[in-house]
Amino acid sequence: MAKDDVLKFSTHDIGLACYGGVTNAWLQYAGMVSELCDTEAGRDKLPTDINRVPGSLAGFYQAFESPLEMKWRSRDGTELRHTVDLKKEIPVPRIKYDHPERVFDKEPFQGVPTVVVEYDDRTVNVYFAATLQVRPLDPATRPSVEHVDVFTLVYSRTL
Questions:
Q1: In contact, 117 and 156? CB cutoff 8 Å
Q2: Region 130-154 average pLDDT
């Protein structure tokens, strides 16, 4: 098996975040409907929000069970709709990592990867987030696996 194949995933969680004045964010995915920012507008995205996985996750889904059907209201009040079919956009669900040779083959992920859907004013971003178990660079000083958080933008569209 190629080292990149270790980073393929077949199941995932999903997390939602809204920023940039977004209200009434709605997502339908695999029969689940989630709503976010229905009582308060999303705050502006801060530098500390980069690479941030939302605290509340839903799911344990087969990758990618259905398209992401999204609706939300932008900062200026425009109602927006967008659909992302991850099967078409990303034919092979795989976490990107610069050093796949270090990934612990028997159990590459701590937990399962997360698909993060982010609404930011008129833009929707989709990220893959995962915690990888990797072999240490110097096994003599650190014999156990290390954990590396990976957060990768896989789709972005501004409407």
A1: no
A2: 86
Q: What is the dihedral of CA 122, 125, 12, 52, to 10 degrees?
A: -100
Give CA–CA dist 44/48, Å, rounded.
Answer: 11
Alpha helices in the chain (DSSP H): 86-89
pLDDT tens sequence across 23-49: 999 999 999 999 999 999 999 999 999
The closest of 72, 5, 65, 3 to 34, measured between CA atoms, is 72
Burial of residue 112 (CB within 10 Å: 0-12, 13-18, 19+) is: middle
15 and 114 in contact (C-beta within 8 Å)? yes
Rg of the chain, C-alpha, whole Å: 17
Tell me the CA distances in angstroms from 34 to 25, 29, 111, 121, 126, one per residue in order. 8, 8, 22, 18, 16
Which residues, including other chains, have CB under 8 Å from residue 8's CB and lie 6 or more apart? Answer: 92, 93, 94
Identify whether the C-beta of residue 118 lies closer than 8 Å to the C-beta of residue 18: yes
